[in-house]
Write a structure and sequence with these properties.
The chain contains no helices and twelve strands. It is mainly β. It has two domains: about 70 residues, no CATH class; about 50 residues, no CATH class.
Length: about 150
């Protein structure tokens, strides 16, 4: 049985257009693979794909949806969620971004005689009211500095 998960270090190639959308909005994927308005019912707090009308040409004919965060200054998107389950032709999906997130500094090493894993303190932020935050990890003191912008 083949595993759908990429191995560590494997690249994930993103294809298709990014589409700005907000929680509560519903979009369809049209026959050409572009985002279009939808007549499907919205779900408050969720980003929804009303109907996938795109035939991907793969064995399953599905697509993987990627949710990204848009940088206000540049308009560029950074992927923050990759749906490992394919969205099949004619199917719909709902995604609810979490407003509270956690992150940490972590690194590891695999040598011939040992595997090591080091992890710093967990930092957390609530994005319900603030749309942008940045953080810096002080390695020498093991502390995060979080700033809101």
């Amino acid at each position: 049985m083949q595993d759908d998960y990429p191995s560590p270090g494997d690249p994930i190639v993103l294809a298709g257009p990014w589409q700005e959308c907000n929680a509560g909005q519903v979009l369809d994927l049209d026959k050409q693979g572009n985002w279009a308005g939808s007549k499907a019912t919205s779900e408050p707090g969720f980003i929804c794909v009303g109907t996938n009308n795109f035939s991907s040409g793969t064995e399953t004919n599905g697509v993987h949806i990627v949710i990204g965060a848009q940088h206000r200054a540049t308009g560029d998107f950074t992927p923050v969620f990759y749906d490992e389950d394919e969205l099949g032709f004619g199917m719909s999906a709902s995604y609810r971004p979490l407003e509270k997130v956690q992150w940490w500094f972590e690194h590891g090493n695999r040598a011939g005689t040992a595997i090591t894993k080091n992890r710093g303190q967990v930092a957390a932020a609530d994005f319900e009211k603030a749309r942008s935050k940045s953080s810096t990890y002080d390695y020498a003191h093991g502390k995060w500095t979080i700033t809101e912008s």
